[in-house]
Amino acid sequence: MVLGPGEIYVVPRGVEDCPAAAEKASILLFEPSGTANAGDAGGDRTRDPVGA
Question: How many Cβ atoms are within 10 Å of 46's Cβ, its own excluded?
Fold first, then answer.
């Protein structure tokens, strides 16, 4: 999915996404509060989900 300035896309629940940009960009992501960041990779960049 390629988006231009001011465009929005809703990733369906359960679909893994990987946002990327060819040049500097500002993005805003909304996720449920229990979503672990940095995917399921673990390590020092992944936090435990809220309530876990």
Answer: 13
